[in-house]
Amino acid sequence: MSTPVKIAVVYHSGFGHTKFQAEAVAQGAGSVASAEVKLMAVDAIDWDFLDVAHAHIYGAPTYMGSLSAPFKAFMDETGGRWMKGAWADKLAAGFSNSGSLSGDKLQSLVQLGILAAQHGMIWVSNVAAQTGRGSDDVNRIGSFFGAMAQSNHGEASPAPGDLKTAEILGARVARAAQRWNAAG
Question: Residue 78 — very low, low, confident or very high, per pLDDT cuts 50/70/90?
Fold first, then answer.
């Protein structure tokens, strides 16, 4: 029997693209038996759930080489929990989206990783192997620190392969949380 785990997917989406990615992450995490997943935008945070969650998966668009301002505001709001060590030893992972193929999304993922590190969290990387460079291919951007997506300007959603990559990351975090929680 699988160990029950709670997974929080916290995101900001300025134009809707990153919300598609967040939903794919949540779908992947929810596909793992006994995983309870809560998807929350940064303007509707359930702090109580974050405090009891076994893992947090953070996501935001990359604007001008950095995380979006609303997500950064959420990061700043976590200071009180940092002071208490409230999220130490939880798992964390991240994802980001931008309009260009590179878009400096790695910088945003590093920011998310540093947020997790400052809280004493354990970072879970993206294990999805790059299957190609077409829009339907998994991890076509070739990111292993977290899931990256690219949304063409004027299109509603990131590429299908980018959403599949996000789904794989969500499932990986949920499985890791089960193992981590069972071992603890």
Answer: very high
Among 131, 184, 179, which Cα is nearest to 159's?
Answer: 131
Question: How does DSSP assign 45-102, residue by residue?
Answer: --HHHHHH-SEEEEEEEEETTEE-HHHHHHHHHTHHHHHHTTTTT-EEEEEEEESSSS
Residue of 68, 49, 46 lying closest to 59 (CA atoms): 68
Rounded mean pLDDT of the chain?
A: 94
Q: CA of 88: how far to CAs of 6, 81, 113, 122, in Å?
A: 15, 10, 13, 8
- Rg of the chain (C-alpha set): 15
Q: Tokens for 162? A: 């980018």
Is the pLDDT assigned to residue 60 strictly greater than 70? yes
In angstroms, the CA 52 to CA 69 distance is: 26
